[in-house]
Write a structure and sequence with these properties.
Strand content: over 45%
Number of helices: 0
Radius of gyration: 13 Å
Mean pLDDT: 95
Order of helices and strands: EEEEEEEEEEE
Low-confidence stretches: none
Helix content: under 10%
Distance between the termini: 40 Å
Shape: globular
Length: 125
Amino acid sequence: QVQLVESGGGLVQAGGSLRLSCAASGRTFSSYAIGWFRQGPGKEREFVSAITWSGENTYYADSVKGRFTISRDSAKNTVYLQMNSLKPEDTAVYYCAGKPLYYGVRYLAGEYDYWGQGTQVTVSS
């Protein structure tokens, strides 16, 4: 079993940057694919980015491609989401999610087994 805790959210002006962290507990974290999702006010939870268990492959939603970068540090049991050139439409609660998976990632929230509590990101115009 894996427990996930997000951190790093906050208030930032448009064009600014934030780095979110997803810290995991549990010995099997290294075998998990990790995804980042977000849910804005009145919106469905949507896929943002994901990384394979090895860290070799990364995936992004079109809306964040070129602005966000996902990475993982297995020694620290942590996955990061570096967010640059933030826009007001990036405002949302950001969640990380984990799924034991040796091949690829998943893009649907319902396919992940473990979730963090979320961290608020607010981008002002």
